[in-house]
Amino acid sequence: GSGKSTLLRALLGLIPAQSGEVSWNGVRLDDPASALVPPRSAYTGQLPALFSDTLRENVLSGSGQARLNRAVRLAVLEPDLDALGHGLDTPVGARGVKLSGGQLQRTAVARMLARDADLLVFDDVSSALDARTEAQLWDGLFGEGDVTCLVVSHRRAALQRADRILLMVEGRIVDSGSLDELLERQEEMRALWAEDAG
To answer: Which of 62, 83, 103, 166 is the most core-located residue (most Cβ within 10 A)?
Structure first.
């Protein structure tokens, strides 16, 4: 409720920004909505939408087959394939109704990873994941990928792996730095950290 998703959408040009500017690799983007699109970037929102098709088609969504296995592995979907009955050929139903919340989120992440994007944008995509699966997801992404990740999250697994964290309170960025720096100087960060301990 602090405005993280709104800020993210403004950075991507999905809603009009009231002020500021967006740069990519030091170059100002006059129109982020036109610049930060596939194949340069891939985005998954808090409530990802799937097509009424198979798991495979939802992951590939026009991408080549070559990246499928890696995308499924990094999104920690492999353990689910046997349980789904038909593996990647399992129909997911309208908007993914046949999948659990975690499977839905990880399918959307796999769809992102099936592209060769320079920027991966995650808007709280691990909220329906258990701690172990979430840790596997971030470890795989940050361990294997040479990609920039912009992650909206208040969860420990994401925060521990971040190079830089922006702390928002009531719609304003109040501080930025490493996790250790923010835990040392910001009571709000310590409260978020303690809240996600359980």
So the answer is: 103
